[in-house]
């Protein structure tokens, strides 16, 4: 009787031990939401990273205007895109001309004139 229970226990332990790695998954939280990731599929992660690099993690023109408004721009006259920055040209609350240079990748303010 003990031998029968011991055999069942060993088989159950072996079954659980072999199934655990197959059930392992990861969770990835990104700008597209939450998704389950199979740890055995690293090639998909590399493809996603390449796609993100191609897109370039940079801010858009609307974000540049929003950042410039936070720096004091009331009315936007023009938004110019240079190789590495956005230049938002407009007027401040007193009616004076103002120019805000914003880094396209980080969104940091480079200068206000």
Q: C-alpha Rg, in Å?
A: 28 Å
Q: Can you name the CATH architecture of the domain at 61-112?
A: Roll
CATH topology of the domain at 61-112: Nuclear Transport Factor 2, Chain: A
Q: Strand order across the biggest sheet?
A: 3-4-5-6
The shape is rod-shaped
Overview of this structure, please?
- With 113 residues, this protein is an alpha+beta fold.
- The chain has a domain at 61-112: Nuclear Transport Factor 2, Chain: A, CATH 3.10.450.
- It is built from three helices and six strands, in the order αββααββββ.
Fold topology:
Blueprint: H1 2-23, E1 26-30, E2 33-37, H2 42-55, H3 61-70, E3 75-81, E4 85-91, E5 97-103, E6 109-112
Antiparallel strand pairs: 1-2, 3-4, 4-5, 5-6
Which features does this protein show?
four-stranded antiparallel beta sheet, 113 residues, 3 helices, single chain, Nuclear Transport Factor 2, Chain: A, two-stranded antiparallel ribbon, alpha+beta
In short:
It is built from 3 helices and 6 strands. By secondary structure, the chain is an alpha+beta fold.
């Amino acid at each position: 009787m003990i031998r029968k229970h011991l055999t069942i226990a060993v088989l159950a332990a072996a079954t659980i031990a072999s199934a655990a790695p197959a059930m392992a998954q990861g969770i990835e939280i990104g700008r597209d939401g939450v998704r389950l990731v199979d740890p055995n599929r690293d090639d998909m992660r590399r493809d996603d990273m390449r796609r993100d690099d191609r897109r370039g993690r940079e801010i858009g023109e609307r974000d540049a205007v929003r950042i410039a408004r936070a720096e004091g721009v009331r009315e936007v006259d023009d938004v110019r895109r240079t190789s590495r920055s956005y230049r938002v040209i407009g007027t401040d609350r007193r009616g004076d001309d103002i120019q805000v240079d914003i880094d396209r990748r980080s969104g940091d303010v480079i200068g206000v004139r």
